[in-house]
Design goal:
single chain; 396 residues; alpha/beta; seven-stranded parallel β-sheet; six-stranded parallel β-sheet; 18% strand
Length: 396
């Protein structure tokens, strides 16, 4: 038996329905029932040819233009592309030329991201850049309209678009819940009938192996638009009581300086506990996956109603807050991988007006993930200093 949605062949994930007298897959039942060996229905959404040009608030830098040209070069050769770019280097802007070429050719484009909050942010940015397109978001709470000229959706929503996309852009492929999830990976493959474009600041070994085997072309960009290097973290390696003193001093110093802070903690329970404890002295709020009205809370933080947010890894990526610094409590906790720590530190220094800042890791022991995170950031910065731009070859 075989499931055409999730590629399941394991008998233990199939169940027999005595009423309909057939077998169905239980591994992807959350997306609706699919019978064994039954082809998925294909609902092709209409496309139309456009004649527009995208616009940006700031022009692309030379390094971004070169990276965008490399992407176009590889796509012209029929290759799928991995864009390995530092946090804040402008991965979203790099793919806009590809989106424009495809929609102007009358082809369907999808942009899939792991997290709902980032879907909504990318949707707004794309709507501003492509005013001639109907840009829609498809995620929890936004599923009344599922077709548009440019579809921005969560990975889970790709099950709606079997063999629909001529270009599928997959962002944050190293993030939960996509990474290591064979169901979502096969759903993403099934949604694309053309080219794939992968975006990440932290590629895993599996992706790099595909590049080495030449199954993927890779474009690198470690230079942020303002030219400043990534923030290298300050490591405070001490016992928990001293960590709390360091945390309190960090927050107090930033409050006096008027600098907002994202304070990352490993669990929802800790976020709520810290909010009650520190809320006596500071204007703060807890931001977790259980938090209601997330968009409203982030908007209030942008408007500086809070000195800092106590957050879990739900805010580790995809969010841009001008002039924010970060501190990570218990950065040696198992929830923090090398990739998540790089993403967290990547929240700092993203603004052209405030291109630098401070990132602090508090820990009782220095884990291998912490060491790899620091080495990876140092390696990106060394590459940036050595080249100051991407070297482009063989581009017509």
């Amino acid at each position: 038996m075989y499931c055409y949605r999730c590629a399941n062949r394991d008998p233990q994930f199939f169940a027999y329905d005595p009423f309909h007298k057939n077998w169905y897959c239980r591994r992807c039942i959350a997306f609706g029932r699919v019978n064994a060996d039954e082809q998925l229905p294909i609902n092709h959404y209409p496309t139309k040819i456009h004649k527009g040009t995208y616009t940006l608030q700031y022009p692309l830098t030379l390094a971004q233009k070169q990276a965008s040209a490399q992407i176009a070069h590889h796509q012209a050769q029929g290759k799928d592309v991995l864009v390995y770019a530092a946090c804040g280097a402008g991965k979203t802007e790099l793919v806009m030329d590809s989106i424009q070429r495809y929609v102007n050719a009358g082809k369907k484009v999808g942009f899939a991201i792991s997290r709902r909050q980032v879907v909504l942010e990318i949707k707004e940015r794309m709507a501003q850049a492509f005013p001639f397109l109907q840009v829609i978001a498809v995620c929890e709470g936004y599923t009344q309209i599922v077709d548009g000229d440019l579809i921005i959706c969560t990975m889970h929503q790709l099950y709606r678009y079997v063999q629909n996309f001529d270009l599928l852009i997959l962002d944050e492929i190293d993030a939960f819940p996509y990474r290591g999830n064979p169901v979502l990976e096969h759903i993403a493959q099934s949604a694309c009938r053309g080219a794939r474009l992968y975006l990440t600041a932290t590629p895993d070994e599996a992706l790099l192996a595909k590049v080495k085997r030449k199954e993927l072309a890779m474009v690198e960009l470690f230079q942020r638009p303002h030219g400043y290097p990534l923030v290298e973290p300050r490591l405070i390696h001490t016992f928990p009581p001293f960590q709390f003193f360091a945390l309190w001093h960090f927050l107090y110093r930033h409050k006096k300086a008027g600098i907002q802070v994202l304070c990352f903690v490993p669990t929802i329970a800790l976020a709520n506990r810290f909010q009650r404890l520190l809320g006596v002295l500071f204007r703060c709020a807890a931001f977790t996956s259980k938090q209601e009205r997330k968009e409203e809370l982030l908007k209030r933080f942008h408007q500086r109603h809070y000195d800092f947010l106590i957050c879990t890894t739900v805010l580790e990526r995809g969010i841009t807050i001008k002039g924010v610094d970060v501190i990570v409590w218990q950065s040696d906790h198992a929830v923090y991988s090398e990739a998540s720590l790089i993403q967290i530190l990547g929240r700092v220094g993203r603004s052209v007006d405030q291109p630098s800042g401070e990132g602090v890791l508090l820990c009782t022991r220095v884990t291998s993930d912490i060491k790899r995170c620091i080495r990876a950031i140092q390696r990106m910065n060394q590459t940036l200093h050595a080249t100051k731009s991407i070297h482009v070859t063989d581009i017509a």
